[in-house]
Amino acid sequence: MTVAPALAHLGHAETEALCRQCGVSCHFAVPVNGLPVVIDDLHCRYLTTEPGEGALPRYACSVYERRHEVAPWCQPVQAAFEQGLLAQDCPYALATRDAERARGRPYQYRGKTRLHPRLLAAAMPSIVRHILEEGVPDALSLEGLERFLQRAGVEGATIVHEGGRYRVVLP
């Protein structure tokens, strides 16, 4: 399925304007009960944070114009959509949902989500276990991984770079 056939008539600038700069597609997601959950500290090394409206920050890519050269893991919107890398409530996904429903077809996008802090705290042991077992892509911010481990109470860990991933080794 393509991203929002209803958006096909939009130009590049208009399509870009739909992005609300939530940063979800630039964050690593850990599976929690089959749902891809975004961990705020685990994001692309090129993602920057700026103050946003209310409590939510705005995110920006520090290499945006050259992102596909500098960050080959960065996906165009269509590929990110197809791989479930966008937020569940991303304007691109919602437009696709609306277009499909207008055609009488049920549709729900299974993209990434953020958990409420209480749910995230409850899921944290499972998230830490997943990261200890699987590691994370080396496209992520090393500082963010270190911050995540500290906040999760993982002490004395060593981060090892191997095979395109960061592995977390406990003493």
Overall description:
There is one protein chain. With 171 residues, the protein is an alpha+beta fold. It has one domain. 33% of the residues lie in helices and 20% in strands. The chain has 6 helices and 7 strands; from the N terminus they run H-E-E-E-E-H-H-H-H-E-H-E-E. The protein has helices at residues 12-17, 67-70, 77-82, 91-102, 117-134, 142-151; strands at residues 27-32, 35-43, 47-50, 58-61, 136-137, 158-162, 165-169. Strands 5-7-6 form a 3-stranded antiparallel beta sheet. Strand 3 (47-50) and strand 4 form a beta hairpin. The N and C termini lie far apart (46 Å).
Q: Features of this protein?
A:
6 helices; 171 residues; single chain; two-stranded antiparallel ribbon; alpha+beta
Quick recap of the structure?
This protein is 33% helix and 20% strand. It is of the alpha+beta class.
Largest sheet geometry: 3 strands, antiparallel
Uncertain spans, ≥5 residues at pLDDT below 50? none
- The topology string of helices and strands comes to HEEEEHHHHEHEE
**How many β-strand stretches?**
7
Instruction: State the helical fraction.
Output: 25-40%
| Major β-sheet strand ordering | 5-7-6
Number of helices, counting only DSSP H or I runs of 4 residues or more? 6
Averaging pLDDT over every residue, what do you get?
Answer: 89
How far is it from the N-terminal to the C-terminal residue, by CA? 46 Å
Silhouette: globular
Number of structural units classed as domains: 1
Q: Structural class, please? A: alpha+beta
Taken as a percent bin, the fraction of beta residues is 15-25%
- Give the C-alpha Rg: 17 Å
